[in-house]
Amino acid sequence: MKNRKIYCLNPISEIGLKKFRGGYSITDKIEDAHGVLVRSADMLAMDFPKSLRAIARAGAGVNNIPLEKCSEMGIVVFNTPGANANGVKELVIAGLLLASRNISGGIEWVRKNSGGENIAKDAEKAKKAFAGREILGKKLGVIGLGAIGVMVANTAISLGMEVYGYDPYISVGSAWNLKRDVHHSENVDELYEKCDYITVHVPATPSTRGMIDAEALAKMKKGVKILNFARDTLVSENDLAAALESGHVSVYVTDFPTAKSVKMKNAVVLPHLGASTAESEDNCAVMAACELQEYLDNGNIKHSVNYPDCDAGVCRTESRIACLHGNLPGMISKFTAIMSEEDINIANLTNKSRDKYAYTVIDIDTRITDEALERIREIVGMHRVRIVK
Ligand SMILES: NC(=O)C1=CN([C@@H]2O[C@H](COP(=O)(O)OP(=O)(O)OC[C@H]3O[C@@H](n4cnc5c(N)ncnc54)[C@H](O)[C@@H]3O)[C@@H](O)[C@H]2O)C=CC1
Ligand SMILES: O=C(O)C(=O)COP(=O)(O)O
């Protein structure tokens, strides 16, 4: 009976943990873990044990995981696309309203004046300080039309906003899901120039870092309201603070408290609550647990962010060997040659590649010897060889 150990770096919903079948246990020691479940814990400087085969991020953003290091160590990293998108979308809609009506200022006023005997009368006098605008008919720019951006754009259309969407890498699935009324901005400048509200829903990568900087802000309308429920690093905080001070940006609503954002004028800062709903936590945990299990049990990869997806089904032969390796010329012939020398018949072979990395699953009719396995492991460019069955 296999004994696979899963380590949780963050609290993970019980519903997800219950998905693990017999042969799995939750360990409190990462040193002997085969799989890790994580949410936002920072793994960038962590050492990984040799036993670790896969990391599943119960959520979307993987900027807390060292992807290149994982790839080189033959650790497959998964995320859970779309599983928390509705949770984030709902908070973004709340963010639109927080940016339009001075709800937080009003709540603060009531709290401060809660001891007053004449609170009802005083409120009627005080309320003019908190008057706002309606979102109906206003222009919203959505940058990044993935799982979250599409939902935000479609909901904003339903609320009567005029929506501009920008995503040069939009997937076919997202394009199908987007309401026809969403204007397609072919360049982001059009969106900056036209929109009253701008919301960003792109991943944090080196290329999106600081995308909302002084140059971008200068192209936006005076009084624009910016929403950032994606990541703090997308915004150049010094540039944004200056734009808020001058009034060029009237409100900044963000899900990311930083030493700078919490001190910005007219910033509404939430403590990273986008995916913190029971529904999103359950969805992410279930998807992440299933991905880990399918990889550890059958070697199949679905929703990986560093290796190619690969479905070789269930192994019906004597044994299955899975190899994570560089996407290099001659790799397959190198390990099939070793198998042929060992007189091993290959019943099925599936090979997939993704950028620098590739994955090969080989179903064989006899058990492989330790010597042959060692020779395959020693091939230059091989990152991990695993006997799945
Ligand atoms: N506040 C929170 O709790 C949460 C925050 N997030 C953040 O939101 C991000 C987006 O999440 P999802 O929509 O689920 O991801 P997704 O992968 O479905 O969508 C991202 C979209 O951004 C697009 N994109 C990438 N670079 C772009 C660029 N330079 N300009 C325009 N579009 C670009 C991609 O083509 C893709 O369509 C995550 O990477 C994460 O950082 C995600 C979930 C929860
Ligand atoms: O899924 C994401 O990218 C998120 O930001 C959600 O993070 P969390 O799981 O709530 O720590």
From TrEMBL:
CDD domains: ACT_3PGDH, PGDH_like_3. The keyword Oxidoreductase applies. GO terms for molecular function: NAD binding; phosphoglycerate dehydrogenase activity. Keywords: NAD, Oxidoreductase. Residues 320-389 form the ACT domain. It is an enzyme of class 1 (oxidoreductase). The keyword NAD applies. It catalyses: (2R)-3-phosphoglycerate + NAD(+) = 3-phosphooxypyruvate + NADH + H(+); (R)-2-hydroxyglutarate + NAD(+) = 2-oxoglutarate + NADH + H(+). It comes from the Bacteria. InterPro entries: ACT-like_dom_sf, ACT_dom, D-isomer_2_OHA_DH_cat_dom, D-isomer_DH_CS1, D-isomer_DH_NAD-bd, NAD(P)-bd_dom_sf. Pfam families: 2-Hacid_dh, 2-Hacid_dh_C. Signal peptide: none annotated. Pathway: Amino-acid biosynthesis; L-serine biosynthesis; L-serine from 3-phospho-D-glycerate: step 1/3. Its EC number is 1.1.1.399, 1.1.1.95. Catalyzes the reversible oxidation of 3-phospho-D-glycerate to 3-phosphonooxypyruvate, the first step of the phosphorylated L-serine biosynthesis pathway. Also catalyzes the reversible oxidation of 2-hydroxyglutarate to 2-oxoglutarate. Belongs to the D-isomer specific 2-hydroxyacid dehydrogenase family. PANTHER family: FORMATE DEHYDROGENASE 1 (PTHR42938), HYDROXYPYRUVATE REDUCTASE (PTHR42938:SF47). This is D-3-phosphoglycerate dehydrogenase.
